[in-house]
Amino acid sequence: METDGALVEWSMHGRPDAFVEVVQRHEVAVHGFLARRARPDLADDLLGEVWLRAFAARSGYDPAHADALPWLYGIARNVLREYWRAGLHEAKAPAPDVVDPWDEVNARLDSAAWARSLAAAVRALPASEREVLLLVAWEQLTPAEAANVLGIPQGTARSRLHRARTALRLALREEATCPPHTHNLSTRTR
Amino acid sequence: MPAAHAQPEHPDPLTVLGLVTPPTPEVLAAARERLWSAVAEEMLAMRPATGAEEASDSRQLGLGEHGREH
């Protein structure tokens, strides 16, 4: 099977349709990325925009990267941030930090009582630390891949992840009613 | 315990918080359709250039408009 990098390269040299194969490989994952950070119906709407942006920006993709998923997450992240900045969500969330969709995520989680304390602890994290933590926990990325998505050095991603995990453990330890299983915050660290 | 009542094991609670319903095939197809429009546009834009190249090659070979020597 051809790598994503090879397909993107083909799409640049006379085979633009090869890019559709890349999209088909990652469409469920990218939709999940959007849906976890916003409403599912918003994810439905924005997914096509992500593909258009990625297709237009593919000349900037390094074909040496066999897996295009972290790059696609980076584009999805930018699409979400622009959506929040543009105030297109104004009817839903009068959040002061318009590039931070956590209010919507929080609303989705509110129905699960056990999740509330964990959600509150995640919400209390600085946005930069939370982003790394959730890329690792939700998208199953390595810290190095998360750094790639965010355009930050790998060491920075690792230290943010470490701080986020430490803060979360401390916060949950203080939560007396928290179920014991919520203290297990293991994530991939390869 | 009956299988229907078995709870899936999620050792990482953060992962559980991130569980969402997978998109329907229709949602994925609609998004892909937008991409296909851009792909088709680019393919169409390439076609005249390819035609011009072929015409140029034909001229260099002394071939006529229909690829045959008159």
Textual characterization of the structure:
The complex is a heterodimer of chains A (190) and B (70). Chain A is mostly helical and 190 residues long. Chain A has 2 domains: 1-96, Rna Polymerase Sigma Factor, Chain: A; 110-190, Arc Repressor Mutant, subunit A (Orthogonal Bundle), CATH 1.10.10. Helix content of chain A is 64%, strand content 0%. Chain A has helices at residues 4-12, 18-37, 40-56, 69-85, 102-109, 113-123, 127-137, 143-150, 154-174. Chain A is globular, with a radius of gyration of 18 Å. The two termini of chain A are 24 Å apart. Chain B has 70 residues and is mainly α. Chain B has 2 helices and no strands. Chain B has helices spanning 13-17, 25-60. Chain B is elongated. The model of chain B is unreliable at 1-7 and 54-70 (pLDDT under 50). The A-B interface holds A 14, 16-17, 19-20, 23-24, 27-28, 31-32, 35-36, 40, 43-44, 47-52, 55-56, 109, 115, 118-119, 122, 133-134, 137-138, 181-182, 184-187 and B 11-18, 20-23, 27-28, 30-36, 38-39, 42-43, 46.
Termini Cα gap of chain B: 85 Å
Weakly predicted, low-confidence segments of chain B: 1-7, 54-70
Shape of chain B: elongated
User: CATH homologous superfamily name of the largest domain in chain A?
Assistant: RNA polymerase sigma factor, region 2, helix turn helix motif
Main β sheet profile of chain A: none
Mean pLDDT across every amino acid position of chain B = 69
Q: What are the segments of chain A in which pLDDT stays under 50 over at least 5 consecutive residues? A: 91-99, 186-190
Gap from first CA to last CA of chain A:
24 Å
Strand elements of chain A, count? 0
CATH class term of the largest domain in chain A? Mainly Alpha
Query: Which percent bin holds the helix content of chain B?
Result: 55-70%
Looking at CATH, which topology of the largest domain in chain A would you report?
Answer: Rna Polymerase Sigma Factor, Chain: A
Number of strands of chain B: 0
Strand content range of chain A: under 5%
Question: What's the shape of chain A?
Answer: globular
Largest sheet geometry of chain B? none
Radius of gyration of chain A: 18 Å
Order of SSEs of chain A, N→C?
HHHHHHHHH
